Amino acid sequence: MAGVSLKNVVKRFGTMEVVHGASLDVEDGELIVFVGPSGCGKSTLLRMIAGLEDISGGEIAIGGMAVNDVEPADRGIAMVFQTYALYPHMTVERNLSFGLRMNGNDKADTARRVAKAAQILRIEELLDRRPRQLSGGQRQRVAIGRAIVREPQVFLFDEPLSNLDAELRVQMRVEIARLHAELGVTMIYVTHDQVEAMTLADRIVVLRAGRIEQIGKPLDLYDDPANQFVAGFVGSPKMNFMAAEVASLEDGCVTVALVNHGGARLTVPVENGFAVGDRITVGLRPEHFRRQGEGDCDLSVKVDMAEHLGSTSYIYANTASSEQLVIEREESRGEIGMERLTVSIPAAKAYLFDASGARLR
Amino acid sequence: MRMRTRAAYGFLAPYLLIFTTFWVWPIVFSFYLSFLATRTQPWRFNPAATWGRLVIDPAFLNALKNTLVILVIQVPVMIALATVLAVLLNSQLLRARGIMRFAFFAPVVVGEAAYAAVFRLMFNADFGIINKIITGLGLPPVAWFASPTAAMALIMMAVTWRWVGYNAIIILSGLQAIPQDVYEAATLDRVSKPRQFFFITLPLLRPIILFCVVLSIIGTMQLFAEPFLITNRGGPGQATETLGLFLYRQGFTVLNFGYASAVAYTIAALAILISLANLWLGRSAK
Ligand SMILES: Nc1ncnc2c1ncn2[C@@H]1O[C@H](COP(=O)(O)OP(=O)(O)OP(=O)(O)O)[C@@H](O)[C@H]1O
Ligand SMILES: [Mg+2]
User: Fold this and answer.
1) CATH value of A4-233 in 3.40.50.10190, 3.40.190.10, 3.40.50.1010, 3.40.50.300
2) Is some CB atom of chain B closer than 8 A to the CB atom of A89?
3) What is the CATH number of the domain that holds B264?
4) How far is the CA of A39 from the centre of ligand 2 (A)?
5) Looking at beta carbons, which residues of chain A come within 8 Å of B179?
6) Is the pLDDT of residue A92 over 50?
């Protein structure tokens, strides 16, 4: 068992730097998830941990030992690829045992490990098939099985579920969580699906353009995002952002005017220093909108579309200056067909961000 | 027949006519010819003079032996070389890969007469560069055109030179179809590069290599240009006479069309048989 630590890790392809000094400590037995938009460097970071990419700067340690110059096979890691990367010409059994066999592992031990992995993943009856005779979900299990038989200290997953359909994805997500509980080993999991991140992770690492934006427990990221990017990335539907201008300052409070809502005033408790006239952004999650009069600032919006799912409804609304808002309602049967809606913002739930996206507290 | 179908056949007619005249008819007619004794007028039905002669004609058996010797030695060597070449051409370390690929493919588009002339010059026993190099190394010069063994070796080298790049390019396309992450997975499985080649690359290339082998078998069974042009019509003596050359001699020098037709059918049948045997031997274990 081992933790993983990254110290100022940098990656350059030629002259282009794609990871700009990432530092992170993954604890032993933790399931940590890297999320971020496409191209932010998640895979690159993971592949550096695996040893498939050279490290251009900084240090990566696994189990307390620097591995910068250690061969991939000697790092005690196993990786599950997005494309599964199964050996196409080998049966499932061979796929699982190939590495052990090539390294002269004891035959009985190999058989035991394969049997155990097959049992954990419930693929016993598939052992004689070849990859092309398997469904996507089955292939994925085999790929995970191949990682298990290596008995690694750290599992690395690169978007393992992105090639599966939605239903199977949910099912495999549960399986991976179960696997983590069962094996109790460190796992680093890359995804760009924030729902996957929220449901699986002990801690989430949010990446953007080669930088770590925030590290934290899923609900901490949700409740207390460090900046506008994280606030917008974590949570589905996304947090609403409303343009605003500082109207006046009081002791421990700031009053802002929502410029796209006819200058509606909202007073938010905040410590930071502002100047009157600063352009800022007010963030509010869809579920935090209240009914008319129940919050601190009423807004009248035009309803573009409403999705009534039974238990909740999502209302897609618009202002005169086309600022999009998503409003989540628990009970909306009375509102079906309405063209305008008045909602209210509770000041305590509002987040403020400055022009650069930094959180104002 | 419906109107539309009739119109369709109408449009196809010119093609079908040409196809029948120049493709189907010669095949059918030569089969008929292969049963006729054509050295005497009028041609008479006499299979003993054609098919019967095949099995006892020492000149035919010599050509068959030469062809099979070339097949058994040259095809495996060339395919092995082509595979190695394909791996090299695929290497990230290689500079100017595009130019290299073209360079190795180029012999296929060079005219046969031109390349044969160059080979004759290079292998000339007295002033050719190859013998200069050999004697330079302190070895005795090789009589490339006078020694039967050396002449066979020369034919094999020439054919290999001409077709190895072509096969390498085909195999290269197979190499490029193998996803990179399979190799990465193997690297994580602590499988060394050479073992990756033998346990992953080669098995995955098997269908395409088999395809190249079959192509080469068909080509070699019909081998004609090299012994005709380089070793001067199968010389020395009949030492490099191949089936293709024998067929040519019977058909166009001796004008024994019946016998030549039987030889042609034999070549085709052998090519098909050997190719099928190869496909059967190389089928994936199930
Ligand atoms: N071999 C390479 N050579 C040059 N640039 C590369 C290479 N691999 C990745 N990059 C660049 O590095 C950046 C990060 O790529 P990476 O694959 O890590 O993104 P990612 O976060 O995994 O994205 P995705 O969600 O699409 O998989 C991208 O801008 C990409 O173009
Ligand atoms: Mg990626």
Assistant:
1) 3.40.50.300
2) yes
3) 1.10.3720.10
4) 7
5) 83, 85
6) yes
Q: Do A258 and A299 form a contact (C-beta atoms < 8 A)?
A: yes
pLDDT of residue B131 exceeding 50: yes
Instruction: Give phi and psi for A77, each to the nearest 5.
Output: -115, 160
Q: Is residue B39 part of a domain?
A: no
Residue B41 domain-assigned?
Answer: no
Is A54's Cβ below 8 Å from some Cβ in B?
A: no
Nearest CA to ligand 1 atom 3: A13
Res. A169 pLDDT band, cuts 50 70 90: confident
SS3 (DSSP) at A305: strand
Chain B residues with CB inside 8 Å of A156's CB? none
Contacts of B138 (CB under 8 A, 6+ apart): none
Q: What is the CATH number of domain A240-353?
A: 2.40.50.140
The model's pTM is 0.83
- As beta bridge partners, residue A359 has A353
Residue partners of A66: CB distance under 8 A and separation at least 6: A59, A60
Q: What is the mean pLDDT of residues A198-206?
A: 93
Domain spans of chain A, in order of start: 4-233, 240-353
pLDDT, averaged across chain A = 90
Beta carbon of A313 within 6 Å of any ligand 1 atom: no
Binning pLDDT at 50, 70 and 90, where does residue B286 land?
very low
- Mean of pLDDT values over B260-270: 93
Full domain range(s) for residue B229? 56-284
Can the peptide bond before residue B42 be classed as cis, meaning omega within 30 degrees of 0? yes
Least CB-CB distance to A73: which of B181, B189, B284? B189
For residue B162, give how far its alpha carbon lies from the nearest alpha carbon of chain A (Å).
Answer: 32
What pLDDT does residue B1 have? 62
* Chain A residues inside the 8 Å CB shell of B185: 79, 81, 85-87, 146
